[in-house]
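Worked Example 4.2. Consider the chain below.
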Amino acid sequence: MSDRSPDRLSDPSRPTRFRKFGLTRSGAVTLVVGSATIAVGIVLGLAEITGLGVAVVAVTLLAAFSVAYSRPALTCDRELGVARVMVEQEVGGEIVVVNAGRRRSTAAGLHERIDGPGHASSTVTWTIRSLGPGERIHAALPLCFAHRGVTTIGPEKIITTDPFGLARRVVPGPAPTRITVLPKI
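Applying the procedure from the previous section yields the following C-alpha cells:
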C-alpha cells in the first residue's frame, strides 16, 4: 500500500499527474539513499559502492516506470440501494470491482472514504486480489450511522503499487454518494 494517506492523494491543490502517479515515501527514501551511495562511491573511488548505488537507483526507477506505464483496467462501482436511513439502522452496501482488461490484474488496495455528520470521517480499506480478464468481486460495505445529518460516502480510489512498494498509481472510482440520516421515530 501507499505510505501516504488517501486524504493527501485527493488534495485538489496538487497537480493531477502527481495525484495519479508518484513515488511512495519508501521509494523517495530509496532514491535518495541510492544517489547518496553513488556520490560516496565516486568520492571514495570505490567502484563496488558506486555500482550498488546505481543498482538501487535503477530498481527504483524501474519500479516507477512499471507503475507509470501500466494501464490498470480495474473499475469499481458502489451500490447502496437507499438514499435515506434512520439513526442506528444498518445499511448493506456493496462495492463491485471488475477487471475490464485483457490481462490479469495485479493486486491492489481499495480505499473508500466516509464523511459523517459532526466532521467525523474514516477510510475503509480492502485488499483486492489479482483478477482474471472479465472477473469481478463483490465487497460488503456494512454501514450504521450514530448521528443524524448528511453523510458522504466516497470518493473511492484503487491504489496499485509495484512489488517493492516504491511507486504507486491511483485510479479514481465513482463519484461520492450522499445518504441522509434521519432521527429515530
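The chain is about 30% helix and 40% strand. Confidence is low (pLDDT under 50) at residues 1-19. Compare this with Example 4.1 before moving on.
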